[in-house]
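Homework help board

Subject: predicted structure for assignment chain

Our instructor gave us this sequence and asked us to write out the predicted structure in token form, then describe one feature. I got the tokens but I'm not sure how to describe them. Can anyone check?
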Amino acid sequence: MPGIIERYRQRLPFAHGDPVVSLGEGSTPLVLAPRLSERAGVEVWLKLEGANPTGSFKDRGMTCAVSAAVREGAEAIVCASTGNTAASAAAYAARAGLRGAVIVPEGKIATGKLAQALMHGARVIALRGNFDEALALVRELTARHPIALVNSVNDFRIEGQKTAAFEVLEALDGELDALCIPVGNAGNITAYWKGFKEAGVRPRLFGFQAAGAAPLVHGAPVEHPETVASAIRIGNPARWEEAMDAMTASGGAVASVTDAQILEAYRFLAAGEGIFCEPASAAGIAGLLAHGAGDARRIACVLTGHGLKDPQTALEHAGAVVPCAPELEAIERAVLG
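My token output:
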């Protein structure tokens, strides 16, 4: 299946003949969540962005950012990341034949994401600081050197990520009341709003942050953000103003959810809907259950990354493995209880 540039070229800043660096991203499933719908009292659909090539929504923006970098003659790309951007940038750099470097907060990146970045051949630098410090430094770096910055401050990232809004509307015949979405660096909610406006619709956007990393909720940067949802552990979002405009202009809102609420929603999705997402993805579900979405009746929730991105958290919060002797009677006891 073609990637998003080929599918939506008329809506993206790419002409025929431009280089396209793609891994077949986009076209991710939108599935009805019957048990979640029953619990929330509304019709809820889940956009499974973990089905993208590197397991997160970042691939939508990365195909555009890296294709543009190749078009402009870049030989290397760089990003700051809590994990998913690093994995995506590393994969698309490898696909393009570019050098890639990623700056991650030391000890604060989920195992699956670190493994991806390393396996794709990127130079991984562990910064003794947080994501916000890393982003400030890479912005200075790219101002001094001819290296393409592929964080969500890059407008091509927003262009690519807006295509998810098109896909949601196509799947639901344009009938959508509200969107619930996790908010970290705030690029994704900005992109969805851009896509919806370009499609001529205005569903309400509800953004949810982790309580320990909720600068948009508090109205001020958080110096030391902390949450189990590492993908949204960001204290000073790069797209702050655009995100707030998206929620305000759409009639939505921003709110926070606790780590306990995030983990409960994370487990509920896996055991109740058969959908394994990373903890940050469950923030939108936790937010819907805790705060609702006004009088919206048909809601899409964005699950931004696959659960295998963070296997350690899964193992810490899942049931135990049952040991068993290699005998039929023992197997019967183990299986039947």
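Reply (TA_rk): Your tokens look well-formed. For the description, you could write something like this. Residues 59 and 88 are 6 Å apart (CA to CA). That's the kind of observation they're looking for.
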